[in-house]
Amino acid sequence: MKQDASRNAAYTVDCEDYVHVVEFNPFENGDSGNLIAYGGNNYVVIGTCTFQEEEADVEGIQYKTLRTFHHGVRVDGIAWSPETRLDSLPPLIKFCTSAADMKIRLFTSDLQDKNEYKVLEGHTDFINGLVFDPKEGQEIASVSDDHTCRIWNLEGVQTAHFVLHSPGMSVCWHPEETFKI
């Protein structure tokens, strides 16, 4: 894909299509590299990257694609689960996405044979933010232009629904008190 010459990026990674969203995994994953996810028109790519500032023997950036997931619709948001681990056997990759069809998809993979996803439905307008519970990763919070904040369990069941006075633009969990968002 042709890069805009007027932009000067410190690091670039080749990709085949437009990228709409990029999200680094904010949690410890048991690997020396950083987990990164990026989403495009109908896919999500999971990879690892190591920067020269982190490893003396890396020049620039070292990037490796781990898996590409078919998504079927444009990806608008990505949130990582704290359960994601690369040092477990088998590895566990867990993340969710928000999409242009107003649905959330929860992906789980062992980067081998197990590649599953669940669709979480309930929002009636665009989803602007989503996040996993940072302690256990057993719940997902999402906010939308439909003036709601919704809490979901990992089975895809909506467990709470808060009406907002305006569109929800972002959501986060309190880092110590998981009953506060």
TrEMBL record:
The keyword DNA damage does not apply. It comes from the Eukaryota. Gene3D superfamilies: YVTN repeat-like/Quinoprotein amine dehydrogenase (2.130.10.10). WD repeats lie at residues 120-162. One of its GO terms (cellular component) is nuclear pore outer ring. Keywords: Repeat, WD repeat. PROSITE patterns: WD_REPEATS_1, WD_REPEATS_2, WD_REPEATS_REGION. This is Nucleoporin 37. It comes from Pongo abelii (Sumatran orangutan). The gene is NUP37.
